[in-house]
Amino acid sequence: KASSFTMRASSASRAGAILLLLGLVAVLLAPQPTRSQCLSEDDKKSDSLNAKQSHERLYKGESIFTLQLLDAINTATPNENIFFSPYSLYNVLLMMYFGARGNTDKLLRTGLNLQWTDSKATVQEAYDGARRSLVGRFRESSAIGFSSVDKLFFGTHIPIAPCMREKFAETIELLDYVQDPEGQRVYINRWVENATRGQIKDLLIPGAITQNTKLAIANAAYFKGSWQTKFKAGETKKEIFYSYGGQQDFVDMMHVEGTFSHAANEELGCHILELPYSFGGEDEDSNGAGSMNQVSMFVFLPPYEPDALSKLLARLAANTDVLHQVVNDGISRKVDVKLPKFSIEKQVEMKPVLERLGMGKLFDQSANFTGFTAGQEPIWFDEILQKSKIEVNEEGSVAASATVAFSFRSSRPADPAMFHCNHPFVFVIYDFTSRSVLFNGVYRQPEK
């Protein structure tokens, strides 16, 4: 069930109500060259870091945020399936950071792990270069579809800071919220639907946009990937999935036996399997895991124990480096794989989740986002709303921003190893080049 969206009463402050939404997943800013001191007074500061070093530090901060976020969402919704894009949320918070000032600036710098530089210009340049590179690589792929777009939907009556108009010229669009708030809601929903190729519809419910809305930050992304080693449709059968609490349900269980990267990690207490997506070109001729893999789904399968999944997520959040280690630690070998065919669609209000991460003051009326308006108009955000969808089948997966017989063994079992996902597991869609988690989720039980 989609979460409800609430707006503050217009009488609360002359600032009115502001909406921040995530249409689906992912963000791509397209800034233009700008003058010094557009983002902050620190823009003139020079950094000794080159572009590659800046990218690495940005990705590092994003990784820390990603795993802490997944743990926080799991804690908030311990009995539900989960699917969302940490990549998208991190990037929309970066957009907020560019317009933040004062203590709000400091809060976002800490929350987004940006202490490696005092210059917002350095962060923005790293961000822009990294996102352009990511989308460009996928554009060249014949097998993976990935697109990422965003919009800053300002009200026509809002005095946008001149340098912000220049910096985000390709991103800003003006809407008349005062004269036709309902029409603008329909327009934004249509933009999201088009950007996600029809996967996400009716994101905003009637009344979500009002005459008091000043800014809606909308982000949408689309991902479609085909497995490098496809599951055989003829071998998909009804099998039992064992949820926690003793619940048992029949699911369409896919099956394939092939060469995959497989590992058993004692630190995390789980088995890990890499399911690479075909990138087209050379990897079509490969006969083994790890050949030309640029994007893969990693499945983390803990033991069938009540607290095993929560412990796994807590361990990932406590040691964020371990994710980047385990994605490269697997052994290529024959594996007998069973994975449920599933679809997850979730709408998440991120405000309570960010409060768990110490970022609740972003939604206070005292929050300072005057960088968007050069101090001429106060702005605050009520909520961050994300709606995401994933479909996993024999051919691959489409994401629009998810074993009772198991025994944990660190020693290598006889070939073929069995990786049967017939109880709750964690999954992530991981981009190797940027070292980014594009999407992640938890599958606890089939959707009713």
TrEMBL record:
CDD domains: serpin_crustaceans_chelicerates_insects. Keywords: Protease inhibitor, Serine protease inhibitor, Signal. Pfam families: Serpin. One of its GO terms (cellular component) is extracellular space. Residues 1-36 form the signal peptide. Residues 67-446 form the Serpin domain. GO terms for molecular function: serine-type endopeptidase inhibitor activity. The keyword Nucleus does not apply. It comes from the Eukaryota. Belongs to the serpin family. This is Putative serine proteinase inhibitor. It comes from Anopheles braziliensis.
